[in-house]
Amino acid sequence: MQELAPGGIAPPFARYSHGIAADPGRRIVVTSGQLGVAPDGSVPDGAEAQARVCFDNLDAILAEAGGSRADVIRINAYVTAREHMAGYMAARDAWLAEADRLPASTLVIVAGFTRPEFVVEVEVIAAVPA
């Protein structure tokens, strides 16, 4: 897969790529948004802890599809307030720490989720080997 970083536009603000081109012969996997709900049903406090659970859940979904975080081409993330951005970004950057290539990424502030304790939701698109 190829990172797209055209000259003449400002570089990304954080650890993401402006775009990704997937190679032929890959299967697209789209996840639902994952909330910070641990396997036991608990929801940790704080954006970083919830985002880490989201990324753990995404790892499991990607593995089920025969892929991994290395196959992610796009991350869409949602937080309920600006103060949650740093915690989310710390978890995302840790999840991508060993990435050879960074996915495209969008982070949006939303009014809320289905339950007030949720402060982060993350979904990904991946191109896994067919």
UniProtKB/TrEMBL annotation:
<dbReference type="Pfam" id="PF01042">
    <property type="entry name" value="Ribonuc_L-PSP"/>
</dbReference>
<protein>
    <submittedName>
        <fullName>RidA family protein</fullName>
    </submittedName>
</protein>
<dbReference type="InterPro" id="IPR006175">
    <property type="entry name" value="YjgF/YER057c/UK114"/>
</dbReference>
<dbReference type="InterPro" id="IPR035959">
    <property type="entry name" value="RutC-like_sf"/>
</dbReference>
